[in-house]
Amino acid sequence: MTNIDKEAMTEIIEDYEEGGRDDSGYVVMDVREKNEIEGTGKVSPNTHTLPLSIIQQQSVFEMDDDDFEIYCGFPKPTPDETLVFTCAAGIRSQHACQYAAQGGFTKLVNYKGGAYDWFTGN
Q1: Counting Cβ atoms within 10 Å, is residue 15 exposed (0-12), middle (13-18) or buried (19+)?
Q2: Which residues, if any, are the signal sequence (predicted)?
């Protein structure tokens, strides 16, 4: 798992928004609860919402592709994509990386600043 700061996250988001999943190789997931995201907005328009509570309860990264897409609402990441997780302050996103690793994913990025850093600039 790689921990990144706001500057690195900004570069990932720019690549992700410009090229989408296919060209950038990134899947950006916000693991906050839906009501938290509604309060601040998403870090980028194409960020997927996948609350840590769902990741924990359902072991989503161990599901097959069809079940993942039905349950999570977007195509399951492939092993060659880089999974980028963000939350409020970098704690839940770190846990999400650990769950993804248990599911066999190896390209994992944790935005350690989270929404507090992203939206306030502190």
Answers
A1: middle
A2: none
Domains of the chain with CATH codes: 2-120 (3.40.250.10)
- Residue 122 pLDDT > 60: no
Q: Say which amino acid occupies 48.
A: H
3-state helix, strand, coil in the chain (%, to 5): 50, 15, 35
pLDDT digits (tens, 9 = 90+) for 23-47: 999 999 999 999 999 999 999 999 9
Cα 60 to Cα 9, 70, 77: the distances in Å are 24, 11, 11
* 53's tokens: 């509570």
**pTM, to two decimals:** 0.96
Pairing, β 48-49 against β 26-30: parallel
First to last CA, the chain: 24
